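Input sequence (230 aa), recorded before submission:
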Amino acid sequence: MGRILIVEDESHLADGLRFNLEAEGHEVDIDGDGQAALDRLLEHRSRYDAVVLDVMLPGKDGFSIVKQLRSEGHYVPVLMLTARSRPEDVLQGFEAGADDYLPKPFELQILLARLRGLLRRREWLMQPHEHDTLSFAGKKLDLEALELQCGDTTYQLTQMECDLLQYLVKNAGRPVSRKAILEAVWDLHEDTDTRAIDNFIVRLRRYLEPDPAKPKHLVTVRGVGYKFVE
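Predicted structure, token format:
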């Protein structure tokens, strides 16, 4: 069981989530203001095992909250709730650093299952064991810890950064389209603005490339997408 922070300004929804989560044995706190929730999470970094985070909040929106958490090195698992289920909004949440998302309205059992998955992963990472890793070009990607080791430097990745890099590495030498990335990595099958993918690539190049302006590993294939070159 874990300690969960629900950040939701609709009190009936927050109270309902707390009731069901406490029935499963979790400890639950609620915050209805975005800025107050961010301050709480940054002040008590190890208190919570997961966060259920709404997008539309007073004080500070959910996208800004998770982005600031990640920029300050706080990687508590975040399940984002959004009333806007367009693929562009989903990608914005992932780009900010969310681990999972659910569009409103959602089925309670699905939310509980997603949250259990995040908690299992967090608990598993805290146990001593051999992690599943992927080695390439003198670097190592830890698929469980979401860490990329480049020489003496280790970068903490978001779940989506890790999934995208894993997909590209496993398709090394093969050009992959942005549409294929959307479907394989984000499970999005609608017409979507693919520029969000370009932003992910820019970030990964900062980690991987000696000169991100002249990439040798994450290469742009004009008119197609990207190719990983080891």
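Checked by second reader. The helical segments are 11-23, 34-43, 62-71, 87-96, 108-125, 159-170, 178-185, 195-208.
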